[in-house]
Amino acid sequence: MRFDEAYSGNVFIKSHPDFEESEAVLYGMPMDWTVSFRPGSRFGPTRIREVSIGLEEYSPYLDRELEEVKFYDAGDIPLPFGNPQRSIDMIEEFVDGVLDAGKFPLGMGGEHLVTWPVIKAMYKKYPDMAIIHMDAHTDLREDYEGEPLSHASIIRKSAELIGPGNVYSFGIRSGLKEEFQWAKENGMHISKFEVLEPLKEVLPQLAGRPVYVTIDIDVLDPAHAPGTGTVDCGGITSKELLASIHEIARSEINVVGCDLVEVAPIYDPSEQTANTASKLIREMILGWVQKG
Fold it and tell me: Which residues form a coiled coil (predicted)?
């Protein structure tokens, strides 16, 4: 994809019009080809952009404004409907181009499988990377109903690529017993139910390391984010997730890329989920891009 031709429709508020001058690239991965319950997350990136017009450009949490960070909104990657493998290949190629240009990649999903090709691209540039994963689900299955390309297998694939000891999951409250056992036996870090306090304990261990952060919106309790494909009660509050983003921003880790996935606007007529996601994206831009 030529970045000067990448725009598609609306853009995130205060995005910079020039790719070359930008420090970061925001992009959408509109794919929900492998969902196991409710589809619709392919519409997430577009709606997150659309509701961003209602955001304040200033973050009182971080005392920064969006105009202080030059980020380019490349629009949505034109993924082929119903073709997971080709979609994965296209995402990896796109992120390869972003990294080759020296930019910070910030993706919006789409189902969580879209993170897998991003991890593959990041690992080529950062072979010593770690992953911070916030989610309701372990996502550690080898396959789902016989299909290895699944949103339920993204963290298993990533752990096998970079080493389970380099993967840190938070907020987990759902998964097969075998998934939790695999994580324990292979030295992977899983914090059940909570995010902020266990994250504070882990961040000093990752000081100085390149870290990719992936956030599934369903880490939030459905009361805070009903618009997602696989809701799961007992999650954290939006306040805690914001605090976790800010804790990472204040830490000594080197955030080299990130994504926010699984927003499915159709299941939330109030648009609470999309608006929350939009604010989270703002805080990720303002808190993490300068660390890339």
Answer: none
Q: Could you give the number of structural domains in the chain?
A: 1
Q: Cα(120)–Cα(111) distance, rounded to whole angstroms?
A: 17
Q: How many CB atoms lie within 10 A of CB 73?
A: 29
Q: With contact defined as beta carbons under 8 Å apart, do 236 and 280 qualify?
A: no
According to the annotation, is 4 in a ligand binding site? Answer: no
Q: Consult the annotation and say whether 139 binds a ligand.
A: yes
Q: For 198-240, write each residue's pLDDT tens digit.
A: 999 999 999 999 999 999 999 999 999 999 999 999 999 999 9
Q: State the pLDDT confidence band at 7, using cuts at 50, 70 and 90.
A: very low
Q: Secondary structure of 66-95 in the HEC alphabet?
A: HHHCCEEEEEECCCCCCCHHHHHHHHHHHH
As beta bridge partners, residue 192 has 172
Give the pLDDT of residue 2. 53
Tokens describing residue 3: 């970045």
Which tens digits make up the pLDDT trace of 140-156? 998 777 777 788 899 99
Domain that holds residue 28: 3-291
Q: Does the annotation list 189 as a binding residue?
A: no
CATH at 69: 3.40.800.10
